[in-house]
Amino acid sequence: MDFLNLQEIHHTYFTKNSATTALSDISLEIEEGEFVSFLGPSGCGKTTLLSIIAGLLEPTEGIVSLEGNQVETSGQNIGYMLQQDYLFPWKTIEENILLGFKISGNINDFNRDYALNLLEKMGLKGVEKQYPKQLSGGMRQRVALVRTLATEPKLLMLDEPFSALDYQTKLKLEDLVSTTLKSFGKTAILVTHDIGEAIAMSDRIFLFSSSPGKLHKTFVIPEELRDATPFNARNHEAFSSIFQTVWKELESLEPTNKY
């Protein structure tokens, strides 16, 4: 049984005077522990699809199931890591990473120790009593990852989490996030506009066309890249040819692309 299954997802946004189809006939399966990327031109519906998978938006047609159960409840066993870290500036780092437990009413010594241990594993020991403004952008994103992982979600949504960071920090965080998720056996979906990032981090890449969004092609990343850290994958001899293949396919979907 597939861990995550999307069957014939179709979504149309209706207004008083118009109807815009964002997604059409999306069917795909993701295995447990797999890291996949959604890639495509602007307007291909990646964020809409992410919202549907999370149960934040009900599709016009189709079914999303997680471990065989239809996804209907918002946020069901799903964690997010976004472009903005969305840490509460008036709360300490410790208070921020325990927020999920507080909301669910599950704050106890075990969960607190677990979250603080995660913080230490992320190289952030000693920042518990500090506030977000005292940390760098990369450190705040690591805190956001700890907050996401602390409640042990079954599925992680990574919506362009590194796009606001400088390149060096981005590369370091790609390695950290990839290594961490593999060590926990987590299933993750990355939404990105960065072809290199998608290749370096993913087991598979789902490429979408736009107007309306459709699944155009699936790329399976070679095992030698999947087994490498994202940084090492970028430097692998096979990386360049895969990049060119994905780039050309993406360009064919968006002839006026000016990247």
Would you kindly provide a written description of the structure presented here, covering whatever features stand out?
The strands form 2 sheets. The protein has a 6-stranded mixed β-sheet, with helices on both faces. Strands 2-1-4-5 form a 4-stranded antiparallel β-sheet, covered by helices on one side. The protein has about 260 residues and is α/β, with parallel strands linked by helices. It has 10 helices and 10 strands. The mean pLDDT is about 90. It has a single domain, classed as P-loop containing nucleotide triphosphate hydrolases (Rossmann fold). It is about 35% helix and about 25% strand. InterPro entries: AAA+_ATPase, ABC_transporter-like_ATP-bd, ABC_transporter-like_CS, ABC_transporter_ATP-bind, P-loop_NTPase.
At the first level of CATH, the class is: Alpha Beta
Number of discrete domains: 1
Average pLDDT reading? 88
Q: Which second-level CATH architecture applies?
A: 3-Layer(aba) Sandwich
Task: Let me know the number of strands.
Answer: 10
How would you describe the shape? Answer: globular
How many whole angstroms does the radius of gyration measure? 19 Å
- The span between the termini is 39 Å
Strand content: 15-25%
The run of helices and strands is EEEHEEEHHHHEHEHEEHHH
CATH third-tier fold name:
Rossmann fold
Weakly predicted, low-confidence segments:
none
Sheet bearing the most strands, described? 6 strands, mixed
Order of strands side by side in the largest beta sheet? Answer: 6-7-8-3-9-10
What is the number of helical segments per DSSP (H or I, 4+ residues)? 10
The CATH superfamily label reads P-loop containing nucleotide triphosphate hydrolases
Helical proportion? 25-40%
Helix-strand category? alpha/beta
Organism: Cytobacillus mangrovibacter
Domain ABC transporter: 4-235
GO molecular function: ATP binding
Keywords: ATP-binding, Nucleotide-binding, Transport
